[in-house]
């Protein structure tokens, strides 16, 4: 595979438009730079400014699913859309529905639902021979208690042992939103009524990491491994030597996942656990741009634009020659290791940001985008969102970057 060419251009013009579902400036800019004709399908209120900037835009409420949902298809067909690309979790099934109709492939909608429903996803993975934890769909507290007891009975715990935790997750939510850990029966009693129905699953031990796989015609053209130093807070890629040594094994696991989920074109973001014996356990998979600013880290570490890569891989008209010219080699062409730590205020009220010289003078420090608080009350955290900025590091040694991430993760920047 050739090294990435920063002057990459499409080898042939495209017919029709692509629909970008969700508001993401980086994806709009990537489409423009590639010369792809596109229409932005954005939540109501965002379309006006885009149209004023000369960007073709459709306003659509992605939470609205009713007998009028076909209106979006009609609007896309009127604009000669030939493929829809989801940028956010809430847009995945909409993209599946559009592509199923536009490309006359009904299974694309079913696959969109599969990526959105975590319990269905787990069942499909298990049926395909992937290693997953024990899981059940539950609708009330008694079912959670029964699951919690059964898991700990299966582990042959006896009186005095610390009970093994189980995880409770919504079946349809992005990333960690709504995820909580159950450590005791008292935790179950404290659950609010509105968490049900949901899914519970056993705890998976080991190092957690994600993969960002760029796929076209069922083939992985580029595979990034992102090592979570502390899930939801800090990460580094490419990973440290211990996880990097498992790259071949990880690629085989992702290829099996791509085959099991009948993935043809686009980007997937699966998460795995690798235990002390080197066994891989599948966590879950998303079919959109990952959170945590992972795409920004990929661009820094490898030098190519992953937002453009998603569009190329999602497009059935992209040729193998174009992809070969676009992607670097994931092992040979590393420019360095990039990491970030997301910062959250540690107090309920804050008034100012203070950045110490120790950070600014660190040779591995690159930049931060932490902001001065506009209001004193700290925003409630939802999942791993609502952070007050991030700090980026870059260097030749992944372990040295991990030390920095751990160092600054607990530092209180907000006073």
Would you kindly provide a written description of the structure presented here, covering whatever features stand out?
Helix 4 (92-102) packs antiparallel against helix 5 (107-116) and helix 5 crosses helix 6 (118-127). The mean pLDDT is 92. The strands form 3 sheets. The protein has an 8-stranded antiparallel beta sheet, sandwiched between helices. A 4-stranded parallel beta sheet has the order 3-2-1-4, with helices on both faces. It is an alpha+beta fold and 415 residues long. It contains 15 helices and 16 strands. It has helices at 25-34, 47-52, 70-78, 92-102, 107-116, 118-127, 141-154, 185-189, 241-244, 247-260, 294-302, 306-314, 320-326, 357-360, 398-409; strands at 17-21, 38-42, 57-59, 81-86, 135-138, 166-169, 180-182, 198-202, 207-216, 219-230, 234-237, 266-274, 280-286, 337-342, 365-368, 390-395. The longest helix has 14 residues, at 141-154. It has 3 domains: 17-122 and 206-326, 2-Layer Sandwich (D-amino Acid Aminotransferase, Chain A, domain 1), CATH 3.30.470; 135-202, Dna Ligase, domain 1 (2-Layer Sandwich); 337-409.
Short structural summary:
This protein is an alpha+beta fold and 415 residues long. It is 32% helix and 22% strand.
Label the structural class: alpha+beta
CATH homology group of the largest domain: ATP-grasp fold, B domain
Number of helices: 15
Q: What is the arithmetic mean of pLDDT?
A: 92
Strand content: 15-25%
Stated plainly, the CATH topology of the largest domain is called D-amino Acid Aminotransferase, Chain A, domain 1
CATH architecture title of the largest domain:
2-Layer Sandwich
> What is the distance, rounded to the nearest whole angstrom, between the alpha carbons of the first and last residues?
50 Å
Poorly predicted regions: none
Shape: globular
């Amino acid at each position: 595979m050739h090294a990435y060419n920063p002057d990459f251009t499409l080898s042939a013009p495209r017919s029709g438009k692509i629909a970008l579902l969700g508001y993401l400036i980086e994806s709009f800019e990537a489409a423009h730079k590639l010369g792809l004709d596109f229409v932005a399908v954005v939540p109501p209120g965002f379309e006006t400014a885009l149209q004023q900037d000369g960007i073709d835009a459709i306003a659509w409420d992605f939470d609205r699913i009713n007998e009028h949902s076909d209106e979006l298809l009609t609007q896309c067909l009127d604009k000669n859309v030939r493929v829809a690309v989801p940028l956010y979790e809430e847009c995945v099934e909409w993209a599946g529905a559009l592509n199923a109709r536009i490309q006359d492939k009904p299974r694309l909608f079913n696959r969109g639902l599969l990526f959105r429903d975590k319990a269905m996803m787990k069942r499909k993975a298990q049926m395909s021979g992937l290693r997953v934890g024990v899981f059940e769909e539950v609708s009330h507290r008694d079912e959670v208690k029964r699951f919690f007891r059964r898991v700990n009975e299966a582990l042959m715990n006896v009186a005095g042992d610390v009970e093994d935790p189980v995880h409770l997750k919504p079946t349809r939510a992005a990333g960690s939103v709504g995820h909580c850990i159950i450590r005791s029966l008292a935790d179950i009693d404290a659950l609010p009524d509105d968490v049900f129905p949901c899914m519970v699953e056993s705890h998976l031990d080991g190092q957690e990491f994600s993969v960002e796989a760029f796929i076209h015609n069922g083939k992985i053209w580029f595979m990034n491994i992102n090592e979570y130093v502390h899930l939801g807070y800090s990460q580094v890629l490419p990973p440290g030597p211990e996880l990097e040594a498992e790259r071949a094994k990880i690629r085989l696991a992702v290829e099996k996942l791509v085959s099991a989920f009948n993935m043809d074109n686009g980007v997937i973001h699966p998460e795995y656990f690798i235990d002390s014996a080197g066994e891989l356990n599948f966590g879950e998979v998303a079919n959109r741009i990952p959170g945590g600013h992972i795409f920004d880290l990929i661009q820094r570490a490898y030098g190519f634009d992953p937002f453009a890569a998603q569009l190329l891989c999602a497009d059935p008209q992209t040729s193998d020659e174009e992809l070969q010219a676009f992607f670097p080699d994931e092992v040979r062409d590393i420019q360095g290791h990039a990491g970030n730590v997301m910062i959250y205020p540690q107090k309920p009220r804050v008034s100012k940001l203070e950045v110490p010289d120790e950070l600014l003078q660190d040779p591995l420090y690159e930049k931060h985008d932490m902001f001065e608080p506009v209001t004193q009350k700290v925003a409630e955290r939802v999942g791993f969102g609502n952070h007050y900025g991030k700090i980026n590091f870059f260097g030749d040694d992944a372990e040295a970057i991990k030390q920095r991430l751990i160092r600054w993760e607990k530092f209180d920047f907000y006073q």
